[in-house]
Amino acid sequence: MPHILVEYDRALLEVLDRRRFALELHALAARTVDGITVESCKTRFRCPEEVVIAHGDPQQALIHVELAILPGRTPQTRSALGAAVLQLVRRHTASASGVTVHASVDVRELTAAYAKHVAADGR
Questions:
Q1: At 22, which helix (H) or strand (E)?
Q2: Which CATH number is 3-111's, of 3.40.50.150, 3.90.550.10, 3.10.110.10, 3.30.429.10?
Q3: Domains of the chain: which residue ranges?
């Protein structure tokens, strides 16, 4: 926890340094929300083959970050995390030229059905 998924448009391939973004995002989440540690953060990136925005103008790009965190955080805490992540996204996509970047963040709580297992050496 948290589980983070970053979905982004191919137009951002050359702009988005995924590793640097993830490391900064992990530190940001740990600073913003009590109980989150850098060590507990897991980020996956997904770049779909095609993203279509509005009327299909190729000068549009999408980046969406989903954070799933353990329940119990206040709406204000989740909102503060979302706003901080959006600012991080904006910094990391600011150099995208020739495209309009549509950036969004969704912070949600994991359900009671969430389960996990961490195994050293595959055990």
A1: helix 18-32
A2: 3.30.429.10
A3: 3-111
Q: pLDDT digit string (tens) for 46-93?
A: 999 888 999 988 899 999 999 999 999 999 999 999 999 999 999 999
Q: How far apart are the first and last CA of the chain?
A: 20
Query: Apex CA 39: angle with CA 45 and CA 75, to 5°?
Result: 75
pTM: 0.91
The DSSP H or E segment spanning 67 is: strand 60-69
Cα–Cα distance for residue pair 91/86, rounded to 1 Å: 9
Overall residue count recorded for the chain in this entry: 123
Distance of alpha carbon 61 from alpha carbon 24, whole angstroms: 22
